[in-house]
Amino acid sequence: MSQVVKAFLGIFMIMLLAVTSVGILTTFLTITNAQDEHARIINEIENSNFYSEVVKECSKNARENGYDADIVVYYDNETKGADLQHLNDTKDAKAARVKLSVPVKIGFFDLNYNYKLDGYAR
Q1: Across the chain, what does the average pLDDT equal?
Q2: What's the N-to-C CA distance of the chain in angstroms?
Q3: What's the DSSP call for residue 113?
Q4: DSSP characters for 81-106?
Q5: How many CB atoms sit inside 10 A of residue 82's CB?
Q6: CB–CB of 96/50 below 8 Å?
Q7: Do 42 and 98 form a contact (C-beta atoms < 8 A)?
Q8: Strands of 111-121's sheet in order across
Q9: Which residue has the higher pLDDT, 14 or 54?
Q10: What angle do CA 62, 31, 73 make, to 5 degrees?
Q11: Residue from 69, 94, 67, 71 nearest 82 by CA
Q12: What is the DSSP string of 1-17?
């Protein structure tokens, strides 16, 4: 009888470890993919010299991939920026702030939160 209890407990612990490990690895991969997307967006904006169509396309691609992207372009000698709705001519642009929010869910632990990345393209 004790062997049955030990076997059940062993299998239960292995299953608990497996489910926990899958949740942690999935979260790690989600955050790593978000960091790669964030770096790609910044590189594309910098390489395009803040071209407005590239900025809009980067935001659109991020939303299609499940990320919430907020890109604000800052102009020469101004502290204010322009969001995507008011983005027209970017020839005087000097920097862009890229905020990326990623929904992270771990089902086994019932955790739901947004991982946020913030960076500048200069």
Answers
A1: 86
A2: 69
A3: E
A4: EE-GGG----TTEEEEEEEEEEEEEE
A5: 20
A6: yes
A7: yes
A8: 81-82, 68-75, 93-106, 111-121
A9: 14
A10: 40
A11: 71
A12: -HHHHHHHHHHHHHHHH
Residue type, 42: I
71 in helix, strand or coil?
strand
Question: Which of 77, 78, 114 is CA-nearest to residue 99?
Answer: 114
Please, what's the largest Cα pairwise distance for the chain? 79
Q: Determine how many CB atoms are found less than 10 A away from the CB of residue 61.
A: 15
* Alpha-carbon radius of gyration of the chain: 22
- Report how far residue 42's alpha carbon sits from residue 36's, in angstroms, rounded to the nearest whole number: 10
49-99: pLDDT as tens digits: 888 888 889 989 999 999 999 888 887 666 455 556 566 666 778 888 999
117 neighbors 35 (Cβ within 8 angstroms):
yes
Note whether 99 and 117 are within 8 A (CB): yes
